[in-house]
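As a warm-up, study this chain.
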Amino acid sequence: MKRFLVSGGILAFSVLVLFPLTALCAPRAEPLDPVFDAGEIPQGKDLVHEFLLKNAGDEPLVFKARPC
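Now compare it with the structure written out below.
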């Protein structure tokens, strides 16, 4: 029983203390200018706009394209 409590305590410590730290070490994409006002667009016209992203995390940020 004592062994179960010790291993349970170690597991609880790992989840409560170490898990939030791994969330800090992650890539995070943030738009530089998140708002875009396109104004009035005539029906049937295409609209193209590029959003610039920066990596606000401390791990490499990787985008993978998947075909539709």
